[in-house]
Design a protein that fits this description.
four-stranded antiparallel β-sheet; mainly beta; globular; 429 residues; 4 helices; single chain
Length: 429
């Protein structure tokens, strides 16, 4: 057993140190985990207007097949090559410019085509070879349901599933005529478009304008799942006849009439996650195995799963990490206190192919966390611990009753064992 005092270490225990050791030992035995808090300090890189970002409100983040990062903002499309930004703005005098500066979503399909959703000007396809944008807008029976685009997905057939303010559209793009009702597009020469409007049960359709449209999720098995404010539906589309069937898979209480929960997939353990007020886990895609793993305070959260199978969640004024294999929960704060305002207003979380986690905010730009660069950890920035007790390899206790855990290839974690102020109050009695 070694005692660390300041920067010195000694094998001899003073009477005080022995007493502290005994106290800490019994504290570790008696303190309930229910009252323990675990938190990490991480080093984030900030990207904002000072770095060339066009605007601080980030609605969507995507990495394309070429490794470039794309950010949808409320003031244009941003391309980031790792050192500088290229901005694409709407030009009312140029019909080939992006359809709007107020953007909502980004998606690159299996053919490498970059799609951009706008808040009021429909769906754009960015022709990167010719540096022009092509537009898909509402108008006529065989057109997109609404010009307010909120999300874009793709199934294994190559069809796009587009969430709009009015509901979900399935878009099938073909190089030949699919029917007399799907004329050749003049904006996309040689292609034909076929839109299918997806309608759920009549009760939800009647309330859609009030509650908001349903959300779409396509998992790694190509199962198409739709969430409403109280149900998960599975949709099976019949390509040959362009029809579909819906089956209700799971129901849950309405937590907020205006909130439509999301689904997320844990591809390592083959589970699905649902973010109602309670974070629900479905093991092995079985909706009969619903289990609560966390209860979040915010109704609408942002989330992602990183390369270490940790779930990142925005919850109230903090970031929460849940290790999905162990269930360990940690609170996250930045090494730089000035970055707290970004973590207080996250809008979108995204993990790129290299494992870097990107956090978009509602006005403060982007935070970037690269686990490969996490070499030094600044912990307990607001405290002044003067005595450290090593209780086992990789575990250290401070005189203010924090437990510091150091593991190879993992961020340093800190757990508050007991409130020092509470100890002082009890000692005075």
């Amino acid at each position: 057993m070694n005692i660390l005092i300041g920067s010195y270490k000694t094998d001899k225990l003073t009477l005080f140190e022995k007493s502290l050791h005994v106290i800490l030992f019994f504290l570790l035995l008696t303190i309930s985990n229910a009252f323990a808090q675990t938190y990490n300090s991480l080093s984030f890189e900030s990207l904002n207007i000072n770095n060339g970002l066009s605007q601080g409100f980030i609605s969507s983040i995507k990495q394309d097949s070429r490794g470039l990062m794309w950010f949808a903002t409320s003031d244009g499309l941003n391309k980031y090559d790792g050192s500088s930004f290229t901005i694409y703005h709407h030009d009312p005098d140029d019909s080939t410019s992006i359809g709007s500066d107020d953007l909502t979503s980004l998606f690159e399909d299996s053919k490498g085509r970059l799609w951009i959703g706008t808040r009021s000007n429909g769906l754009d396809l960015f022709d990167r070879e010719n540096n022009v944008f092509r537009h898909i807008r509402h108008g006529g029976p065989n057109s997109i349901w609404s010009n307010d685009i909120q999300d874009i997905k793709e199934d294994r057939t190559g069809a796009l599933w587009i969430r709009t303010k009015k509901g979900i559209d399935r878009l099938e793009i073909s190089t030949r005529k699919t029917s007399e009702n799907s004329p050749v597009s003049t904006l996309f020469p040689g292609d034909t478009f076929l839109f299918t409007h997806i309608k759920l049960d009549s009760a939800f359709e009647a309330r859609k304008d009030k509650y908001g449209s349903e959300k779409i999720f396509i998992d790694s098995r190509n199962h198409i799942l739709i969430t409403t404010n109280n149900s998960i539906w599975e949709l099976k589309y019949h390509t040959g006849v362009h029809s579909y069937n819906l089956k209700r898979k799971y129901s849950y209480p309405v937590s907020d009439s205006l909130f439509i929960p999301d689904l997320l997939e844990d591809t390592i353990q083959h589970n699905l996650l649902l973010n109602t007020r309670k974070m629900i886990q479905f093991r092995h895609y079985n909706f009969g195995t619903a289990k609560e793993i966390y209860q979040h305070q915010r109704s609408q959260i942002s989330w992602t799963i990183d390369k270490n199978n940790k779930l990142w969640i925005s919850d109230k004024s903090r970031i929460v990490q849940i290790q999905l294999q162990t269930g360990v929960v940690q609170n996250i704060f930045p090494d730089d206190p000035l970055q707290n305002k970004i973590l207080n207003a996250p809008t979108i979380f995204y993990t790129d192919r290299s494992g870097v986690v990107w956090i978009g905010s509602g006005g403060y730009g982007v935070l970037k966390y690269d686990p490969e660069k996490e070499l030094f950890h600044h912990i307990l920035p607001e405290l002044n611990p003067y005595q450290l007790l090593e209780i086992s390899p990789g575990k250290i206790i401070t005189n203010t009753f924090q437990e510091i855990t150091i593991k190879k290839n993992q961020p340093v974690s800190v757990r508050q064992l007991i409130d020092p102020e509470l100890l002082k109050k009890n000692s005075r009695k």
